What does this fold into?
Amino acid sequence: MSPAIPNETMDDNRRQIIDAAENRYRNYGYGKTTMAEIAEDVGMSAANLYRYFKNKHEIGSACAQRCMAERIDQLSVIVRKPGLNAHEKLRSYVIENLMYNYQNAGVDQKINELVQIIVNENKDVVYKQVEKEIGLLAEILSQGNSSKEFAIENVLRTARSIQSATIMFNVPTFLGLYPIEQFQEMANGVVDLILTGISKR
It folds into this structure.
């Protein structure tokens, strides 16, 4: 029986595996990457790699979740940034989300391919990210209610509606349709419409 791996070492090794896998996916794509190649990049045997991940799909899922978490982290900074009122935060949130997705849709096509594969096979990953987005939007709306900028009866329901209304700015497939300037104009128009509906009169 193999000796138990300390949790700290286990976490560090998992991070190294995910780093190596992501690098492979960016250069060669998910479909052309094997467990043996990832193991070689990390400097371990393929057999040892299976002590950390059951299969390539599990590694791919971890990579996709990390990529999506990076976007959530950036949006969290906007939501909790001091000195901005709720109107400004909502607009900054939508525009920053658009810019992040637009830039990564063009630069990391192979990573987007990976995310799409994981989305198709493991929708729970996406559901969790959507709930985090809704939570961030709810924070902005709650701030707006407290500052009397907004008059929202059901914050969570409104946050879900805003997430749905801005979904076009999240999907790489749509982001190849127009230049960024046109998307920015569209996003600002959507925000204007939302603010008209939720602002206190």
